[in-house]
Amino acid sequence: MKIGIFTALFHDRPIEQALDYIAEAGIQTVEFGGGAYPGSRHLNDLGGVQTLIEDEGARKRLLKMCESRGLEISAISVHGNPLHPDKTIAQEHHNAFRNAVLLAEKLGVGVVNGFSGCPAGGPDDKNPNWVTCAWPDEYRDILDYQWNKVAIPYWKEQNTFLKQHNVKFAIEAHPGFIVYNPETVIKLREAAGEQIGCNFDPSHFWWQGIEPLNAVRYLGPKGAIFHVHAKDTRIDPINSAINGNLDVKSYGAIAERSWVFRSVGYGHSQQWWNDFVTTLRMVGYDYVLSIEHEDGMMSTREGLTKALQTLKVAVVQEKPGAMFWARE
């Protein structure tokens, strides 16, 4: 298993400076933003996604930048909402997704990461509507519209496109979108096709009351884990006990929130992360742990240093194998 990073963390640096920092830190893979919410900051330094699709020379420069530093590209990420009721936003994010797939194919990268999207509550609504309860009854009507009229037809079509280009789409199960937990990952995968799976990010599961280790054991045997993010979450025991974990306060209001994202190792112990790697390997995943830093209490350097310390202990660099006993 390799340790990687989502390069959106270094949006303030040009691509080569970012890659220098990443390589010097001992990281092995990079995940580039390709549009939608993460943007495409570093790919823009080479002319942008469209240029990279069309220009073999630009692609070779990108690959050389990575390979010369001992880095591999683990994924292209286009976290967006192609199901958005605002047709302009939906089209922009759809185009970003399709272009990321085309670029991934040409780069020899097998995974594109993103979100499932969230439609409106009905054909005349203007904003996405994330349903979190089964009553009043109209909420179930909304879910029927979102899944059967919008999401499943859309992702069936995209599954065909993905298969044509030999790329998998790893959905990050994220609250606010129709795929937000393991059950909805599998619901969409079974309805739309096996090119669709998940970018497993434990940070979004803890505050929903999901134990990520159990989620890995549910998703892994179904062949649904394509990529993994390494990000931690700390639940505040006082605020959570008063207000629960559904929290719409700003991520910057750290003292008032029921939970916050933390750097790896600051929400859960070294032992938990050891168990996470072990459980991933047990179900057949041995690809990448891609660090995503969103810790409002730590600088980039602090958060990355702690995450690497924790993950390097958890990840055994040599492949597991039989034990050989020394003989005299």
Overall morphology: globular
**CATH homologous superfamily placement:** Divalent-metal-dependent TIM barrel enzymes
Tell me the major beta sheet: 8 strands, parallel, barrel
Secondary-structure element pattern, one letter each: EHEHHHEHEHEHEHHEEHEHEH
Task: Report the structural category.
Answer: alpha/beta
| Count of distinct structural domains | 1
Whole-number radius of gyration?
20 Å
Would you count the extended β strands for me?
10
CATH topology: TIM Barrel
Overall pLDDT score: 95
Tell me the CATH architecture: Alpha-Beta Barrel
Q: Quick one: CATH class?
A: Alpha Beta
- Number of helical regions: 12
Question: Distance between the terminal alpha carbons, to the nearest Å?
Answer: 33 Å
Q: Give the amount of beta strand, in percent.
A: 5-15%
Q: Segments where pLDDT lies below 50 for 5+ residues? A: 322-328
Q: What strand order characterises the main sheet?
A: 1-2-3-4-5-6-7-10
Query: What percent of the residues sit in helical stretches (DSSP H or I)?
Result: 40-55%
